[in-house]
Design a protein that fits this description.
The structure is a single chain. The protein is built from 15 helices and 13 strands. The protein folds into 2 domains: 97 residues, 2-Layer Sandwich (Beta-Lactamase); 202 residues, P-loop containing nucleotide triphosphate hydrolases (Rossmann fold). The strands form 2 sheets. A 7-stranded mixed sheet has the order 9-8-10-11-7-12-13, with helices on both faces. A 6-stranded antiparallel sheet has the order 3-2-1-6-5-4. Helix 12 runs antiparallel to helix 13 and helix 14 runs antiparallel to helix 15. The termini are far apart. It has 368 residues and is an alpha/beta fold.
Amino acid sequence: MALQLDEILKDLVQREGTDLHLKVGQPPFFRVHGRLVKTDYPVLTPQSIRDLIYPILADWQIQKLETQLELDLAYEIPGVSRFRVNLFHQQGNLGGVFRVIPSRVRTIDELMLPQVLKKIAMLRRGLVLVTGPTGSGKTTTLAAMVDYINENRRAHIITIEEPIEYWHQDKQCSITQREVGVDTESYAEALRHVTRQNPDVILVGEMRDLETISLALHAAETGHLVLSTVHTIDAPQTIDRIIDAFDPDRQPQVRVQLASTLQAVISQQLVPRCDKPGRVAAMEIMIVTPAVRSLIRQGRTDQIYSHIKAGADIGCQLLDDHLLEWVKKGVVSFEDAYMKCSNPLEFRQKALEMGLISSEQAAALASS
């Protein structure tokens, strides 16, 4: 009997997996609680993987996949889940990854995210960036923030996504969701017209190119709250990445523009839980203060960390401190937290001072 994509995806959801990997020469793989697991399904052939994927595509999507060799889309099994899909070619063969998108947007509290995200979500203007590697939960965090706005403010929210992952139902807000490739040609094209659509909040799925970055900065500068993501690991790298996207002669102007519009950078990673199945977000949060704005204008991003350390009273936090908090609460194991920390030496010392590890464990880690 031929493999059925819907049956494989239902199995993935039942196992509480997050991703399905399809690759010629291997059986389907599931990612479950952050770990890749080989399934017992038959090994995929070029024809069997085509038979799985092509029936879910429209004619224009097939044409795009065959000409551009890449395709992003969303797929839904009613009553089961939505999926973010990336199709690609590797070694001449078709492959794909399906990411599970929960049918319901989880709240900031349900996700156990820092409470300061509620305050950030209610900002009236400026640029807020959620950063982290692929698969670190950036989209889920943004969806929770949009949901909080939807519950607590009367506003027009416009999202521009590729593809749309979470569907939002209007609550206090009116929400317009536009999909790149379906409702608009590109992020940049949508942003060129968005300010004429009377938005209060604009969500840009990803700031991936110079034109999108420039238009997003302009939208934030003209009195809108702009939420977006960047594939960076911390606040200083995020600032440098945005500025470095521009030609050197424009960078001084962009520094001033970014210094005046940036409100917060939320950098996150997902860590396996040890108290029950699942993962939890560990976050570094930088709230932009006048001192940070001055450092951005002067190009002294290397000094930003000292301001994050000193800003606990306004909601700033370091990634390593959040990891240690999870360890102290028994949510995350020390070993998993240590694998994700940014400064192993300081992390070991703080863990030792907090009584989370012994001096023998600290010494063993230092010598490993």
